[in-house]
Amino acid sequence: MESHSATSRPALGSKRLPTWLLGGLPLALIVVALGAFALLGDQTLPERTGPPLEELAVEQTILRPGSIEIAVRNTGPDAVEVAQVAVNDQFVDFAAGAREIGRLEAQTLTLDYPWQEGSPYNVSLLTSAGGTIEHEIPLAVATPEPDGGFYGLMALLGVYVGVIPVALGMLLLPFLRRIDPGWVRFFLALTVGLLGYLALDGLLEGLEIGQGSAGAFGGAGLVLLGAGLAYLLLTALDRFMAAKRERAASAGASAFRLSLMIAIGIGLHNLGEGLAIGSAYAIGSLALGAFLVIGFALHNTTEGLAIVAPLTDDRPSLGRLALLGLIAGAPAILGAVIGAAAFNAELAALLIGVGVGAIVQVIQQIAPTLRDSLGRILQPLSVGGILTGIAIMYTTGLLVTA
Prior knowledge:
The protein is α+β, with helices and mostly antiparallel strands. It folds into three domains: about 1-45; about 55-135, Immunoglobulin-like; about 150-395, no CATH class. It contains twelve helices and eight strands. The strands form two sheets. A four-stranded antiparallel β-sheet has the order 1-2-6-5, with no helix packed on it. Strands 4-3-7-8 form a four-stranded antiparallel β-sheet, with no helix packed on it. A hairpin with a 4-residue loop joins strand 7 (about 120-125) and strand 8. Helix 7 (about 255-280) packs parallel to helix 9 (about 320-330).
């Protein structure tokens, strides 16, 4: 008995010190130590020798009549000063803001150069320390001026790409209600195939965008960060909705909840598609932008089917169906406007990652609904549905080259 009471006795001093102090004191010491190192680090560490490490990343290029504007960001540890600029090996006059660009700071260089539409150009930025940063303009096209009409066009394109195709796909709900329950599982499996392809396609696209970004705020890692955050947040949302459904004891809530999660996942993916369309128009690639609209519109028609597949035994109101369609399709409008206003590779990589994480979480939600009477998820009908969904998305995806 004595030994038991000894082991359960509180640690020395725990009764005298409050809990918040036991946790706050070590944290305060850590903050003080890190602050001292940040202030005195330059004085205590040996001085670095050798040439400065100069890294400039080109974030945006704007072409206007008689001038080229290049937005650059310093992604290296040392300040950078652009001393000269050459276009196609010919030095040109340019205007800039501050002489030096500090770490993570951005600056716009305005080049006085009479470029010709349709011609390629190579821009060389020469720093004061002798470094050279190359930037290629494959095809010179005047950058569209962002005004009310331009943003209205972007919003209209978002409707064409997101809202209308999803709504057309949702019209298949009456057909799904008439078929055998086994075939309903087939179409649910087809939904898994569709979403799985979207997740893989989004992951690859996000990694490509991240690797081509400036890297100042992270590159490809932002895709994985966005995916992880979206998965965790949507899992928490799903748990909340499940608890609310159990308290309400609503028989039809489960099917609608699953359709809602599918719509959220598709909507976040369509946000990335809208970014691609808006950025294509913003940089003047009008033909590419129109091609993306056609390809994505056909691509997204199948997404409406994915949303209504769980609702075959439910009778949702038209208002709820309209809400699901808007959740899935309307983000394409927002993405197109953001992409046209100020496309940023880091932001695009993060948002695409969010879409990937959302889709993975949705697939996890759909998987239990594929079980047959023996409890098997992977049986001939479900495997056929998954493969069919992948084939559909691959075929329609051939129309989209970016």
